[in-house]
Design goal:
four-stranded antiparallel beta sheet; 11 strands; 32% helix; 28% strand; alpha+beta; GTP Cyclohydrolase I, domain 2
């Protein structure tokens, strides 16, 4: 669990609200923040650059709330939290509570607020292409994810030539894997992966068929889920060397949350069978 830097009662006069008077006249808001970060290095060295400058965070939050206008405090909290997390590399996550003590409710009340918690999550994505300029499609996908708000590409494997899987009457693939930290929930990340596939003119005519770009969400932390749209971990990882080989390059000690084995061991076991 990360250490915490706590900020209480930051006052900001801003223009958030549904009613025209709220956006025109503005009102007082207060913000409580919990910044999750490892403070040990800064504590031992007594150096500010090794920590998160909470004064700078306060000014950033104040400026953001004053310079933007949202109808809902839910929206203001969400976008402000995302902006803070993307601004400070040392933050692992945060809790932000936005208070609106003068909300136009029309009844006596003490306060109304929204509190959210947001964290960077580690995800792993498999990349594949066997049509057109395969390398260009894969490199474009890496750039697209790196440019996506709420995503930081942390490692990219080498791209490897592989034989087709399932339907074999098609060109050879170029495959790879990447690790990224993301603020997006799994289904939102899946949406963004599919948008990148669509931008590459991916056509889904045949299961396991040829494609310009294939992006599969393999792992999202150690989350296990099985929905109509997404299964995590991605099924079949342990039987696919075109996934395990590049994944073992960037995350050999990653533990499969269902099988309970590191990726390097799954690869070794698969190679023994072949």
């Amino acid at each position: 669990m990360a250490d915490e830097i706590r900020i209480r009662g930051l006052e900001v006069y801003a223009n958030h609200g549904v009613y025209p008077e709220e956006t025109r006249l503005g009102q007082r808001f207060t913000v409580d923040l919990e910044l999750y970060t490892d403070t040990r290095r800064a504590g031992l060295a007594d150096e500010l650059e090794l920590s998160v400058d909470y004064g700078a965070v306060c000014h950033f939050v104040s400026d953001w709330l004053r310079e933007h206008s949202c109808k809902l405090i839910e929206s203001a909290a969400e976008h402000c939290a995302m902006a803070v997390l993307e601004r400070w590399e040392l933050l692992e996550g945060l809790a932000l509570e936005l208070h609106k003590p003068s909300a136009p409710i029309g009844l006596p009340f003490a306060d109304v607020s929204v509190r959210i918690e947001r964290f960077w999550r580690r995800a792993y994505v498999a990349l594949g292409s066997n049509l057109g300029d395969r390398r260009a499609y894969l490199e474009g996908a890496v750039r697209g994810l790196a440019a996506l708000p709420g995503c930081r590409v942390k490692a990219v494997s080498e791209f490897i030539e592989t034989e087709p899987f399932g339907y074999t009457e098609q060109p050879r693939f170029l495959n790879g894997c990447l690790a990224l930290d993301t603020l997006l929930p799994p289904l939102e990340l899946l949406d963004e992966l599919q948008k990148l596939e669509q931008a590459a003119l991916r056509e889904r005519k045949l299961h396991w068929g040829p494609r310009t770009l294939d992006l599969d969400l393999l792992f999202y932390e150690d989350l296990k889920m099985d929905s109509a749209r997404l299964t995590l971990p991605h099924p079949g990882i342990a039987e696919r060397d075109f996934v395990l080989r590049p994944l073992a390059e960037i995350a050999p000690d990653l533990i499969h949350p269902v099988l309970g084995k590191p990726i390097r061991r799954l690869l070794a076991e698969l190679e023994e069978k072949q």
